[in-house]
Amino acid sequence: MELVWYHWAGIVLVGVMQGFLNTVAGGGTLLVLPALTFLGMDLAVANGTNRIAILLQSISGAASFKQQKALSFKVALPLAAAATLGALVGTFVVVQVDRKSLNLVIAALITLMALLLVFKPKMWEEVKEQHWPKWGVYLAFFAVGIYGGFIQAGVGFFLSWALVVAAGMDLVSGNAVKTIIIGCYTTISLVIFYMNGLVNVPVGLVLAIGSMAGAVLGARFTVMKGNKWVRYVLAFVVVVSAVKMVMDAIG
Length: 251
Description:
This protein is mainly α. It has 10 helices and no strands.
C-alpha cells in the first residue's frame, strides 16, 4: 500500500471525525474502516491498525474530561475490567462469525436505540437510581466488551446504552467513563492484533493524531452542550450507521 501526502492528510481528517464522533456518540470506526480499505489495506489489518487511534483518542478524551472534572475513575475502572475480559473473548473469535448476519443484527439493535433516543429522552438525560444487580451490570459490560474486541465499529452506542440503562448514568458522565472503558480493553485487543501481524503502525499513528484532536473537541462539546445535544448527535449517528450496516449486509 503506497501512500502520498494527500492520503496521509485524508487519514488525519478521518481520524479527527472518528475521535469526535466516538467521544460524543459512537460510530467513528464506521468511517475509518471503509477509508483504510479504500486505500488498499486489508480489512483485518484495518481493524487492528485502527486500535492504535482508538487507544490514543481514549487517553486524550479521558484527560480532557478529567481536566473538566467530569470523570470518575472509581466508577470507570470496575466497568472497564469487565469490558476488558469480554474484549479478550471478542478479539480471539473475530474471524469466526458471518459478517452479513452480524451487520443485520447490529443494525436492528442500534435502530431500536435511535428510536429510544428520540422518543424516550428522559431515559438518557437523567441520572437514575440503579436497579440492575451488580452482577447484571458487569455482565452487560462483559458482553459489550466482546463486541468491542470483535469489530469495535458501533461499540460506543452499546456502551452508551449500558452506561445509561444498566449503570444509571446520564450521557455526559457516561461519555467520560466510556473513554476509560474503551481505552482499557483496546490495549488488550491491540496487543493481540499486533502479535498476529495485523497492525500497520505508521498509518495507525497518523490516524491517531487526528483522533486525539477529535477526542478533545468531542469532550469539550459534550460538557459544554450537555445531554440534550449529545442525544441529538447520538441519534443522528446511530441512524446513519444502521443504514450503512444494512447496505453492507445486503450489498
